[in-house]
UniProtKB/TrEMBL annotation:
Residues 24-356 form the Apiosidase-like catalytic domain. InterPro entries: Apiosidase-like_cat_dom (IPR025277), Collagen-bd_put (IPR024749), GH (IPR017853). Residues 358-449 form the Putative collagen-binding domain. This is Glycoside hydrolase family 140 protein. One of its GO terms (molecular function) is hydrolase activity. The keyword Ion transport does not apply. Keywords: Hydrolase. The keyword Hydrolase applies. It comes from Paludibaculum fermentans. Gene3D superfamilies: Glycosidases. Pfam families: Apiosidase, Collagen_bind_2.
Length: 465
């Protein structure tokens, strides 16, 4: 199956057996060295290495693997004063140029970097990649990480982790690339020099894109943007506010040359207040998380990252000063509905030829809806997906797929189940009416297949591993 044209294969149970990750031949996706497709389904476990014991980390990683995630995004340094759950410090005298690598923490037996090593190994046992931010942007703003020590720190990290099978590097860390720009460039260069085989990107500030500053840098393998946590009403500043339209960021990156893959590395988190800082604001829910995921992937992103307010900071009831008023501890929030529902997007795109998929809004007939009413379309050579967040009726121009007949399906992003709507003539303009009553969160994907392809039901991932 791994050799099928177009990459119609399932995610392997042991992805490292297919070789390291690399950018696909068409520069739009990621794949393994042997050509096996890789769909980035990320979870933001930012404070995993700081907050969780090994037993807790094992619980978290096992849960995310079971829910279909493939990448965990973490910070190696949140602040210069970081300690792990065992009390071991990350740095000597708060200097990133001097990692505290004394073997064995005297009190608990686990020093900071030994614990990071263990987390990486545990993630590998679960077949998970770890996308590591070497240092959050605040360390650079405070000049704790600077021109004098960044190369030493990044070089030390590269030497320590270059042979791990499941490492991805994310420079940046919720910061604009023009804030001490040279520090971020030196970090990327030092990582690439010391670790030529692992992928590298840049995690930017909310409502910004890595491509703005680093698209042409050779160390940047793929672009990342942070669509952020603001609503349409809150995002009103700047020359081109996009609000909740994260697909617009994808479209901007998709049009760039040279071509590089792109992904939303931080959309609105489940159960976080809109705009982050006002706890009286409504909280983003699983419906919003699904909308961000399907909008961005159907616009051309190579994967998607999900986040949960409690899980991203590994909130515990005893924490004295949590961020953004989480309402439940991390181990309960693991089962927030959005986390379970993300896997259905991955299963859908992996049930059809992978590398040939492109965005194609021209298929929508007439005026498309605005904001929540928008219909997002992506297609391959012999299949088409059309996503509606509200489940409103819409019209499509048929005839873009080969053959006289199409097989139609309604696929639910909420539970991954599909309903056949039978055979359709592949011609003219046709109106489609999704199941249920139109409303926010009554989202559906219309799947149209050329009959002669004999594709299985949507979401049925073929596996030959």
């Amino acid at each position: 199956m791994a050799g099928l044209a177009g990459g119609l294969v399932g995610q392997p149970a042991a992805p490292f057996s297919h070789g390291p990750l690399m950018v696909s031949q068409n520069h739009r996706f990621l794949q393994h060295k042997d050509g096996t497709p890789f769909f980035w389904l990320g979870d933001t476990g930012w404070l995993l290495c700081q907050q969780l014991t090994r037993e807790e980390a094992e619980k978290y990683l096992a849960d995310r693997k079971a829910k279909g995630f493939t990448v965990i995004q973490v910070m190696l340094l949140h602040t210069a004063a970081d300690r792990n759950a065992y009390g071991a410090p990350a740095l000597v005298e708060r200097d990133p140029g001097r990692p505290a690598e004394k073997p064995g923490h005297a009190q608990a037996g686990y020093d900071y970097w030994d614990h990071v090593d263990w987390v990486l190994a545990a993630a590998a046992r679960h077949g998970l990649y770890v996308a590591m931010v070497p240092a959050w942007g605040t360390l650079v703003k405070k000049r704790e990480l600077n021109d004098q020590n960044v190369a030493a720190y990044a070089g030390w990290l590269a030497a320590r982790y270059k042979d791990r099978p499941n490492v991805i590097w994310m420079t940046g860390g919720d910061i604009q690339g023009d804030v001490h720009h040279e520090v971020w460039r030196r970090m990327g260069q030092a990582l690439r020099h010391g670790d030529p085989h692992h992928l590298i990107t840049f995690h930017p500030f909310g409502r910004t894109r890595s491509a703005t500053w680093f698209h042409n840098d050779p160390w940047l393998d793929f672009n990342m943007f942070q669509s952020g946590h603001q609503s349409y009403e809150q995002d009103t500043e700047g020359p081109d506010p996009k609000g909740e339209d994260n697909w617009r960021y994808v479209a901007e990156d998709y049009a760039l040359t040279p071509v590089k893959p792109t992904i939303d590395g931080e959309p609105s988190y489940e159960q976080i207040p809109r705009g982050l800082h006002d706890k009286a604001q409504p909280r983003w829910n699983e419906n919003d998380c699904r909308r961000y995921a399907y909008w961005s992937v159907f616009a051309g992103a190579f994967g998607h990252t999900y986040g949960d307010n409690s899980v991203m900071q590994m909130f515990k009831p005893e924490d004295k000063d949590p961020s953004f008023t989480p309402k439940k501890p991390w181990y309960e929030a693991l089962d927030d509905p959005g986390a379970r529902q993300m896997q259905y997007l991955a299963k859908l795109v992996r049930s059809r030829p992978f590398f040939e998929r492109v965005p194609d809004q021209s298929v929508v007939a007439g005026e498309n809806g605005a904001r929540y009413e928008r219909v997002a379309v992506t297609r391959g050579k012999a299949y088409l997906f059309a996503y509606t967040y509200t489940g409103r009726p819409f019209e499509l121009n048929l005839g873009v797929l080969p053959g006289e007949k199409l097989m139609g399906w309604w696929y639910s992003p909420r539970d991954g189940k599909s309903k056949s709507i039978g055979l359709l003539k592949n011609e003219g303009v046709k109106r489609f009416t999704p199941p249920g009553t139109p409303a926010e969160g009554n989202d559906w994907v219309l799947v149209l297949d050329s009959v002669q392809q004999g594709f299985p039901a949507p979401g049925t991932v073929l596996s030959g591993d």
